[in-house]
Design brief:
Aspartate Aminotransferase, domain 2; single chain; 7-stranded mixed sheet; alpha/beta; 2 domains
């Protein structure tokens, strides 16, 4: 029996083996759309790159390994991965989602699949009883994002899974903010784990890619069919770059988390800051749940200035020198974002303000630069 690798070894070796052609240690980039066949159907396992590509296969094996799953799937973006999950269902099915989720996910649910007869319920999942109160015989999926974007709320995966399994409801977890280094939802009982691999998995802000990992064979066969039939697959170059990024995930995440902890503590003690959202604080409402299901508390931080002013928030953002104002997160460089006008602009103002995404909210994706440089940059921006 093959020895099971620990996580830090798994990101490097998991699901990988030297290339059969020439023994290349890193999987080659198979930049091809099609493959030679000896006769119709007589090939080496690959016939067309929408269906399979050796570079993508290497990535998918790695994804499954690091999430402690059996089957991995790579998609052309995180949203295309969510789109594939939604295609598991049919008109009339009901889906319960957290109400402070990523704006792109909300847009896909509310503007696309709602038109096709899906019914979505958006609810505060910090108290899992809120979820259970919405369950009907038509409920087919509970969609969890934890920590949530951008309010850093924590949802108790185990409690949701226990309730859902008794009723044969699927549980899917968007694990983008945590990465499998910090949290492995399948080990907590979830049926599906999804990533925008654009973020921490690839880690260098040079790829757009999505991922899904599952354990169930039947579910994997359905997703494989959807992946091929819909065709939203990544090319071999993006697959290669993501696989390369995964190999340093553990060392990057360690530094991300170290820097974020120090910055969260700095912000919380600063006179110009009214509130900091980060699950590592003991005062965080679900801190104990975060401790139980996460290895550390991640590198995403949100905060609001003391005067709750959009003008002040914008001033801080503009004064930052090392933190770059940009969409996305999870790269080696530190980024700053304004959720209300950027990542969550597609959510109606009254809805986003109910969950805390007010105009003065600022979000940091803390990178792996020298900590002192980052703290000094924030300090000068707050003056």
């Amino acid at each position: 029996m093959k020895k099971k690798l620990r996580f830090n070894s798994s990101v490097i070796h998991g699901g990988q083996s030297p290339d059969l052609a020439y023994g290349a240690v890193m999987p080659p980039i198979y930049q091809t759309s099609t493959y030679a066949q000896k006769a119709p159907g007589d090939h080496k396992g690959y016939e067309y790159s929408r269906t399979h590509n050796p570079t993508r296969t290497a990535l998918e094996k790695s994804l499954a390994e690091i999430e402690e799953g059996s089957y991995g799937f790579a998609f052309s973006s995180g949203l295309s991965a969510i789109d594939a999950i939604m295609k598991l269902f049919t008109p009339g099915d009901e889906i319960i989602s957290t109400n402070d989720l990523y704006g792109g996910s909300f847009r896909l649910f509310n503007k696309i699949f709602k038109k096709f007869g899906y019914k979505f319920h958006f609810v505060d999942m910090r108290n899992v009883e809120n979820i259970f109160n919405l369950v009907t015989e038509k409920t087919k999926l509970i969609w969890i994002e934890t920590p949530t974007n951008p309010m850093m709320n924590i949802i108790d995966i185990k409690s949701v899974v226990k309730y859902a399994k008794e009723r044969k409801i699927l549980v899917a977890v968007d694990n983008t903010f945590s990465s499998p280094f910090l949290q492995q939802p399948l080990l907590l009982g979830a049926d599906i784990v999804m990533h925008s691999a654009t973020k921490y998995l690839s880690g260098h802000s040079d790829v757009i890619l999505g991922a899904i990992v599952v354990n169930d064979l039947n579910l994997s066969e359905k997703l494989a069919f959807i992946q091929n039939a819909s065709g939203a697959v990544p090319g071999p170059m993006d697959s290669y770059l993501t696989l390369r990024g995964i190999k340093t995930l553990h060392v990057r995440m360690q530094r991300h988390c170290e820097n974020a902890r120090a910055i969260a503590e700095f912000l919380s003690s600063h006179s110009a800051i009214k509130k900091v959202y980060w699950p590592g604080f003991k005062s965080h409402p679900n801190h104990e749940i975060a401790k139980s299901q996460m290895k550390d508390f991640g590198a995403m931080i949100s905060f609001i200035p003391q005067d709750l002013s959009y003008k002040t928030a914008l001033k801080v953002i503009k004064k930052l020198k090392i933190f770059t104002l940009a969409e996305s997160l999870g790269g080696v460089e530190s980024l700053v974002g304004h959720p209300a006008s950027m990542t969550h602009a597609s959510i109606p103002k009254k809805d986003r303000e109910i969950v805390g995404v007010i105009d003065s909210l600022v979000r940091f994706s803390v990178g792996i630069e020298d900590l002192e440089d980052l703290v000094e940059d924030i300090d000068q921006a707050l003056k």
